[in-house]
Design a protein that fits this description.
With 106 residues, the chain is mainly α. Helices cover 42% and strands 0% of the residues. It has 3 helices and no strands.
Length: 106
């Protein structure tokens, strides 16, 4: 309890400065967080390839794993979904920067 506590390095976020001066962001290092993956099924135990029930179970397992691969390929990252939801919320609260309906009619 009396030893030194581990210190985490400060986060290098790129936020606009409060004094209005230009903001200089650290360079992007290209490391994106890994995409989330779904757990895969695998065969366990003794498999009798001559038993039709085992073959059907194996086929269904492969089909479920293929479906999970398709879901992972097409899924939206949680951070993107949250950002889009926040953008929509703020646009509804404060309006968008685009033209209003009365301006479009003119």
């Amino acid at each position: 309890m009396c030893g030194e506590a581990p210190v985490t390095p400060p986060a290098h976020a790129c936020s606009p400065r409060l004094d209005g001066k230009p903001t200089f962001c650290p360079p992007f290092d290209g490391d994106l967080p890994p995409k989330p993956t779904l757990p895969r099924e695998e065969m366990r135990g003794d498999i009798d390839v001559w038993n039709p029930h085992h073959l059907i179970q194996m086929e269904q397992m492969f089909m479920r794993n293929a479906r999970k691969t398709q879901i992972e390929k097409n899924m939206t990252l949680p951070s993107d979904a949250i950002n889009n939801a926040l953008d929509s919320f703020w646009e509804q609260e404060h309006g968008s920067n685009g033209s209003t309906k009365s301006e479009e009619l003119l």
